[in-house]
């Protein structure tokens, strides 16, 4: 797109790298079609705003702000999601280790309890949305978020460490309407190293 502001990031792995948990076809469509659509939407709005200002023209500020929030949040969350995943996990256990595991155990009492709470948020999201583990930049405490659409129920200044897309477009080719099975598969793919890097950056 000419004069684009936002770009679709390349995946840090091949499209077939997350199989059998996420198939090559599912991942390709999710990344190239759905994520690209949010990038295109954000760019179109940015260009329309620039044109309106250049031409000293009016526009529906409320509608544009709401739509930009949706499209740009979709782009950002998907970008975080791809980086949260890794191929070929070293073990079925696949826990965070390091500082993040210590914080999880302290606040949630156990890693298993954390997984249960996160999975419940993901499975109970109404319609389209996300589940996320974040850190409150003010209290330095971990918090769980259930994000509706891409931009509802976000907490300002909360830094996302781990996020799971539970829009149907994320799993329907592989799991049809069995969201719970997709959530279970997600735990085999989590890149806890990336989550720990985000935690360390947030604690600086």
CATH superfamily: Iron/manganese superoxide dismutase, C-terminal domain
- Which structural class fits the helix and strand makeup? mainly alpha
Low-confidence stretches: none
What is the overall pLDDT average? 93
Widest beta sheet: strand line-up? 2-1-3
CATH architecture: 3-Layer(bab) Sandwich
**Which descriptor suits the 3D outline?**
globular
| Strand portion | 5-15%
Task: Provide the succession of SSEs.
Answer: HHHHEEEHHH
Q: Main beta sheet: strand number and arrangement? A: 3 strands, antiparallel
Give the CATH class: Alpha Beta
- Taking all Cα atoms into account, the compactness measure Rg is 18 Å
Number of domains: 1
> Percentage of helical residues?
40-55%
Q: Quick one: how many beta strands?
A: 3
Number of helices: 7
Instruction: State the CATH topology.
Output: minor pseudopilin epsh fold
End-to-end separation in angstroms reads: 36 Å
Defining key terms:
single chain; mainly alpha; globular; minor pseudopilin epsh fold
Summarize the structure.
The protein is mostly helical.
Task: Explain this structure.
This protein has 204 residues and is mainly α. It has one domain (22-204): minor pseudopilin epsh fold (3-Layer(bab) Sandwich). It has seven helices and three strands; from the N terminus they run ααααβββααα. It has helices at 24-54, 61-83, 98-108, 111-124, 172-175, 179-186, 192-202, and strands at 129-136, 142-148, 158-165. A three-stranded antiparallel sheet has the order 2-1-3. Helix 1 (24-54) packs antiparallel against helix 2 (61-83). The chain is globular and about 55 Å long.
